[in-house]
What does this fold into?
Amino acid sequence: MEKLLDIAEVAERSGVTASGLRYYEKRQLIAAVSRNGLRRQYEPSVLQELALITLAKSAGFSLSEVGSALKRPGTTKVPRRALQEKADAIEKEAERMKILARMLRHVADCPMDNHLDCPRFQKLLNIAIKISKESTRNSRT
It folds into this structure.
């Protein structure tokens, strides 16, 4: 049997605070397997579970969605379709951010006195409007 990890060690190794670990337990995302006095003890595999939770949160999944994927601590049911949809949304947002960055750089560097007279700026504005419309349309569905 592998050595159990104390809550402080799990917090240090995972980057999740002890209060965060207790909250995840309350939400049934992870589970302590025993106690050493008042201190919770975890299987080493909890570090992988916490990495999955952190990854999912970084991708924009809610803890409820994460809980559905984990089912119960120690098991996972990967929601492949939801992951594909989230990856698509992240890629669209990344493209939108790239266009925004290009617009800002162009405005900062454009030699035109009036940016609205600049053909490149007009092109970037039209792209931004198109993306905004798509984003609005997609958020309604």
Observations:
- The chain is about 65% helix and 5% strand.
- The chain has a mean pLDDT of 86.
- Residues 80-109 form the longest helix (30 residues).
- The two ends are 49 Å apart (CA to CA).
